[in-house]
Amino acid sequence: MKAVLAYSGGLDTSICVKLLQEKYDCDVITVIVDVGIPKEELVEAEKKARKLGVLKHYTIDAKEEFVTEYIHKAIKANATYEGYPLSTALARPLTAMKVITIAKKEGADALSHGATGKGNDQFRFESMFRSIAPEMEIIAPIRELNLTRKESISYAKEHGIPIPVDLEKPFSIDENLWGRSIEGGILEDPWTEPPEEIFQWTKITKQKPETVMIEFEKGIPIAVNGRKMKPVELVIEMNKVAGSYGVGRVDIVEDRILGIKARENYECPGAVSLITAHKHLEQLVLTRRQLRFKEIVDSTWGELVYKGLWTEPLRKDLDSFIDSTQERVSGEVKLKFSQKNCSVVGRQSRYALYSKEMASFDEKASDLVEGMLRFHSLQSELSKKAG
Ligand code: ARG
After folding, report:
1. Which of 172, 264, 305 maximizes ligand 1 atoms within 8 Å of its Cβ, making it the mutation to test the pocket?
2. CB neighbourhood size of 114 (10 A)
3. Does residue 89 have its Cβ closer than 6 Å to ligand 1?
4. Same fold, 2-173 and 175-348
5. CA distances from 65 to 102, 287, 295, 314, 328 (A)
6. 88: Cβ below 6 Å to ligand 1?
7. Confidence grade of residue 223 (pLDDT, cut at 50, 70, 90)
8. Looking at the predicted structure, is the pLDDT value of residue 170 above 90?
9. Threshold 0.70, pTM exceeds
10. For residue 266, which of 32, 169, 188, 196 sits 20 to 30 Å off, Cα-Cα?
11. pLDDT at 67
12. In angstroms, what is the span from residue 264 Cα to ligand 1's centroid?
């Protein structure tokens, strides 16, 4: 049997290669979908795959596609789940899709992933696999063999598989251009403060506050401080700028798909600052009815994506609504960064629904308000009278 594995070179997917070979009698093709994985890790992971005797290995650079087809949609939808920007959930559909493409090209029989039976990623991978390639078998070694992290670590050691974690620091880290998530080990106690060493993107290196201008075109950020940037470059730049002020650290107890409450730590400086800026621009150009309705659409979008239901038809329907609102979300937002803080200090747009004349206390109010006042609380008055 030939299996294509969504591989990263981390503990779980590294032992998956061996498990697929030994316990499932498979020839393994590993696929790393680069959605923003550090270069050294890519090189190491590929080396390791070859050492493990894979039939073939692919490294696919999907950064550009990840930004233009996923991150941009997430910005337009202000995509969050329980208060933090979606990052892992956003990349899984793309990774799954690339794995399926390779599997079809290679005439493979099975699709495989390294997710455990406790988390969300099993749902995300498998709903993509099932909806796009229902003819293929799915093999999820870690879940099926019900391996604990400790067991996985000893399996790796027994088989001489080099792994980036040990029993003292068994953190499970997932990283892409939109965020970095860290879980496991001592972090599993929600009372324990996360040690500084787990963070990489949000070390404070700047003290002096700085204002950064973001330009949006139809809901998409296209320039920073007047400098037009390519999609990937802009996200990297905002991770750097916001990260240097320590913006974008999130420590929460989150409700997983299974209902399990899990303590999670995230670093998502670019996502936090760009979504903040985007929301403020929407406030300037959309009507209050659009804004209220869009809140519902945005949270539904976030929940679908969190739950791995990227191929659910409703997601596309919501995207159509969102795109229609974004026609006017063009303009500039000034973000001010200071220690652990990012706030909006200015916004402007050619589509602004703001009227200085209407809003200013220096201008006279319209006498038509009088009439509106009479009717505004009509039903409250009537109900009071009715007793
Ligand atoms: N809980 C987050 C999510 O479901 C992050 C999971 C990422 N995986 C990891 N091994 N850190 O999106």
Report:
1. 264
2. 26
3. yes
4. no
5. 16, 31, 26, 22, 24
6. yes
7. very high
8. no
9. yes
10. 32
11. 98
12. 8
* pLDDT at site 50: 97
Classify residue 27 as exposed, middle or buried by CB count within 10 Å of its CB (0-12, 13-18, 19+). Answer: middle
Give the model's pLDDT for residue 166: 81
Tally the C-alpha atoms within 13 A of residue 290's C-alpha that lie toward its C-beta.
18
CA distances from 71 to 1, 10, 226, 285 (A): 35, 24, 21, 22
CATH class name, domain 175-348: alpha beta
Other beta carbons within 10 Å of 299: 15
Measured over the CA atoms of residue 14, residue 16, residue 21 and residue 27, the dihedral's sign is: negative
Confidence band, pLDDT 50/70/90 cuts, at residue 165: confident
**C-beta of 181 in contact with ligand 1 (< 6 A):** yes
Give the residue, by CA position, lying nearest to ligand 1 atom 1: 264
The residue type at 97: M
In CATH, what class is 2-173?
A: alpha beta
Ligand 1 contacts CB of residue 65 (under 6 A): no
Q: How many CA atoms lie within 13 A of 148 on its CB side?
A: 5
CB 150 within 8 A of CB 9: no
Closest by CA to 30, choosing from 10, 5, 2, 59, is: 5
What ranges do the domains of the chain cover?
2-173, 175-348
Is 159 within 8 Å of 18 (Cβ atoms)?
yes
Length of the chain (residues): 387
State the amino acid at position 380 in one-letter form: S
Single-letter code of the amino acid located at 179: G
